[in-house]
Amino acid sequence: MKKTAASLPFFLSGIYLELRELMVRLLQITLLFLLMLPGTVTTALELNGEWQQGGVIIGKVPQGTHVEYRGKKLQISAAGEFVIGLGRDAAAQASLVTIAHNGARKEHRFAVKQRTYKIQKVTGVPQQTVEPDPAQVERAKREAQMAADARKGDLPLTFFSQKFEWPLIGPVTGVYGSQRFYNGVPNSPHYGVDIAKPVGTLVKAPAGGVVTLVHPDMFFSGGTLIIDHGHGLLSTFIHLSEVLVKTGDAITQGQAIAKVGKTGRATGPHLDWRMNWFEERVDPQLLVAPMPAE
């Protein structure tokens, strides 16, 4: 028969109640200890965006949680947000690690969608176009380093979490990932999205940020502008006829920032919008809605 405090002699009932309370406290302490053991804490992880080549993933974790991706500890905003970018040729598998406040680590694995890119072979191109002279090559290298330096920052901005908007509305004439072979020589893949509009058409900021580079005329890209949206995610706008902002300016979404041109090695007037997550080239079209009708 089950014993209760009421069924025991008076002098034992107090001892019974004390023992029962002690057992409850011990159980609570044991459960708390088990939750603090490495591997027993689960970290809530929210992800937005598709794991695919050229993709951008916006994540969120609880306060105090750290995130590592490819051995790098990512910057986490006050709201727990972070960003990851996948390159054009990202491997078929990716993983990230969350680290709880007590040091418990959990690996999260993802399949990365592989994409097929348009390849075009062009013959009969003047050889000096395919192989620029050494002076031009040296200039291009210096300018490429300037652009790379402008993308090295890890600014604590959170504009990366905004819903990106098209900087320009018009016909899309070039897409991310495509590649041309000139006279059998592979050219660098195209890392942006081209939008054809007349010279002088206003270009607007797709999201807020800070200007990290303005150059009036680079050899390949002509008028060039780079805006940092935070946590390593940046937009680059090239072939511009005019830049309306300066280095260090704080930019708001929708602000007029430049004008369409055909500068640098451009065959016609258009905007080439490119995006980076640090050194990884990502696809701008994956961050915006389908191009609206004009």
Note down, in words, how this protein is organized:
- The chain has 294 residues and is α+β, with helices and mostly antiparallel strands.
- It folds into 3 domains: 6-36; 46-111, Immunoglobulin-like, CATH 2.60.40; 119-287, Glucose Permease (Domain IIA) (Distorted Sandwich), CATH 2.70.70.
- The protein has 3 helices and 20 strands.
- Strands 9, 12, 13, 14, 15, 16, 17, 18, 19 and 20 form a 10-stranded antiparallel β-sheet that branches. A 4-stranded antiparallel β-sheet has the order 4-3-6-7, with no helix packed on it. It has a 3-stranded antiparallel β-sheet with strand order 1-2-5, with no helix packed on it.
- Strand 15 and strand 16 (233-243) form a beta hairpin.
- The longest helix has 27 residues, at 10-36.
- The radius of gyration is 28 Å and the shape is elongated.
- Mean pLDDT is 87; it is low at 31-42.
Features:
Immunoglobulin-like; 10-stranded antiparallel β-sheet; alpha+beta; 294 residues; 3 domains
